[in-house]
Amino acid sequence: MIKLSKLILLLIAAFLISCGGKEEKAEEQIKIGKKTTTTQKETKPISTGVPASQKIDLTNKGVGPIKKLDLPATIDEPMASTGKELFKVKCMACHKTHKKFIGPPPVGILEKRTPEWIMNMILNPEKMVVEDPLAKELLVEHNGSPMANQSLTEEEARAILEYFRTLKKE
Amino acid sequence: MKRLSIIFLAVTSLALVISSCNTGSRDTKSNGALASNVAEKVYVAPGEHDEFYAFISGGFSGQLSVYGLPSGRLFKVIPVFSQDPEKAWGYNEETKPMLNTSYGFIPWDDSHHPDISQTNGEVDGRWVFINGNNTPRIAKIDLSTFETTEIMEVPNSAGNHSSAFVTENTEYVVAGTRFSVPVPQQDISIKEYKGKFKGAVSFISIEPEHGHMEMAFQILLPGFDYDLAHPGRGASHGWFFFSTYNSEESHTLMEVNASQNDKDFIAAINWKKAEEYIKQGKFKTMPANYAHNVYDDKTHTATSTMKKEVKVLDPADCPGLVYFLPTPKSPHGCDVDPTGEYIVGNGKLSADLTVHSFSKMMEAIKNEKFDGDAYGIPIIKFEESLAGVVSQAGLGPLHTEFDDKGNGYTTFFISSEVVKWKVGTWEVIDRKPTYYSVGHLMIPGGNSRKPFGKYVVAMNKITKDRYLPTGPEVTQSAQLYDITGEKMELLLDFPTIGEPHYAAGIPADLVKPRSKKIFKLEENEHKYGVKSSEEVRVERNGNEVHVYMTMIRSHFTPDNIEGIKVGDKVYFHVTNLEQDYDVPHGISMIGANTSELLIMPGQTETFVWEPKQVGVWPFYCTDFCSALHQEMQGYVRVSPTSSDIKLSWSLGED
């Protein structure tokens, strides 16, 4: 009898714990903690192998508004020069074209990333560094410096991408 | 049996647990339905938005605070007339001109009566106007940026109290003087008050598209005290009503001498007529000296211009411009109902409210039912404009607001209460105590054609025991009442900034969509702004040094500067290159005799540093901006005045 009542008490306790939003949130927080540890695990190969900035992934399109983008064979020069001006104003505080600064240099980026990934990184950096595995690794590689969302339009981001196509390795 | 009962108990308690689980923690019926109901009415869940904005005057803080209703949460204190080191208002080079006056730079004022701009008699959420009482000024706050963008000094005025109220299409903002003074100012005996002192009432025009302010004209009234004002609306649009006291024209021991007359006046001013007289050239141009300060969102910089004259109308030369409505016992509040028909005068030394009828007033004017005149201004016979009296409603009536169901709500200072009464029948419907000594009250849109009669906010002069004590100086306070039912219901007390005088409220949906998120970098026209790190530089001109600096998460460009000398005057012009919402950066320099800068995305601000000691001195970002915020710092090397170290600057160079 005592056993039974204990069992019921336990049941009640279980219900109390299972209901309410607070507990769910606490669980989420723990998940975030776990994510960090898994990220660290993922980034371990960096020390032995290839850092994220050097990894090549020409299939990943990233997370964001750009789902599919086919680049024409020839470079649109007027668009590229618009992109160059935009890059100066909106990006150069953190990115130099040919040298790692706060963030990685864009030279040769199209040999390593899809055009969709590049534009999503420009347009949707907050989501990218949380959801995209490569962007996550890049954030760690760059000391946690966040990629700033510069509130560019898709057209502007596209122009910057076109400018990146003109950058020649030194 | 026993066993069964235990199982029964267990099952019911289980059921209880489950049910309480589903309904959530709000279900506190056991604590009394009333209490839980009240809590729910002001509860805005975390992450949700309030239904109304309330702009509450900061009183002797000189500022304007922004609250949410019904929660009573404080969102922002907008610096207006007083320096604010948090936002560098009046400290950075850009905003210092905003506090310029004909008396020079003034770091403080006493802000009283905010009023929201109107279109067709309804609040439109574009601007808030508020008066500086001590050094007469009117400020305009832009509700796309929630920043003060224009301040107009008011000449010939002293104690700018019957201000800053707007006409129903924001044609004008009015500014009436509380203290009459010699106009123009002159060196005469105070005893010469009677006849020599004048009360100027100013009409500042508002350009409809951008809101630019212009001192359109002043009307020079007799030497009374002009206390409060409200515009006509609907049928009475084109008129403005000002309460007066001290029609005795006394200049000393006012609490006795200004309370001798049984009645003072409400001045009814026909401003459409004034416009005609101005067109006809019936004004005098008086020499004057007053500052007009304008802040520009593109240059992020204010300019101050001294104006040298003002157009003045003398009612003696302008028949039909002004009439006096006798109103008992030193009226304070002067409030107009949503239809525009009724003008309520709250005789502060009385127990009654006097209500004038606009249509009766017009009839009396037509039939010249006058009871003499004051300095050539016709006095309408008391009974001829009288619509009714809310009698014995309380002690010390001060202010009235209206709901959308034909009710008036009046505060009573001496008896500490809000009284609800019926417009037209003048009967008292309900009364609720306030804690304590209530001054103004506010219903969102409550002085417009379209009130939103859900809440009334009462603003108290005394709080005494209502909050945890904080020494002799205790918090100022407002109280929120639900006015949707027949009876009012007290919902909430919340502390306020400074002494709250008037407030203005508006549905959040009329303001929210226009609220700016960032300043666009490409629109930045600041003289010293730099739009890319390529333009960053440091320039010397004698002992003046200009640093053209940028900031973005999480570094300054440059972050190392050498070649600065003791005795230099160093201007840091700092541009925030961020273009994302809610990423401001700050900057402060060790030993700078000024405040930090708090710079919004796309904005440029400037502070001045005059290094006094040789050494290497750090600066840093004051607003936690990113995970690397603590790394957002830099150094300036300061050498002796005689040193010949070259000016240099860098970022990321060894």
Helix-strand blueprint:
The complex is a heterodimer of chains A (170) and B (654).
Chain A: H1 2-18, H2 21-48, H3 77-90, H4 115-123, H5 125-131, H6 133-141, H7 154-166
Helix pairs in contact in A: 3-7, 4-7, 5-6
Chain B: H1 2-23, H2 33-42, E1 52-57, E2 64-69, E3 73-78, E4 100-101, E5 104-105, E6 115-119, E7 122-132, E8 137-142, E9 147-153, E10 160-166, E11 172-177, E12 181-182, H3 193-196, E13 197-206, E14 213-221, E15 225-231, E16 239-245, H4 254-257, E17 263-270, H5 271-279, E18 284-296, E19 301-313, E20 322-328, E21 331-336, E22 342-347, E23 353-357, H6 358-366, E24 370-374, E25 377-380, H7 382-385, E26 386-390, E27 397-402, E28 407-412, E29 417-422, E30 428-433, E31 438-442, E32 455-460, E33 476-482, E34 489-496, E35 503-507, E36 537-541, E37 544-552, E38 555-557, E39 560-565, E40 569-576, E41 585-589, E42 597-599, E43 604-609, E44 615-620, E45 633-639, E46 648-650
Parallel strand pairs in B: 14-19, 37-40, 39-45
Antiparallel strand pairs in B: 1-2, 1-35, 2-3, 4-5, 6-7, 7-8, 8-9, 9-18, 10-11, 11-13, 12-13, 13-14, 15-16, 16-17, 17-20, 18-19, 21-22, 22-23, 23-26, 24-25, 27-28, 28-29, 29-30, 31-32, 32-33, 33-34, 36-37, 37-38, 39-46, 40-43, 41-42, 41-44, 44-45
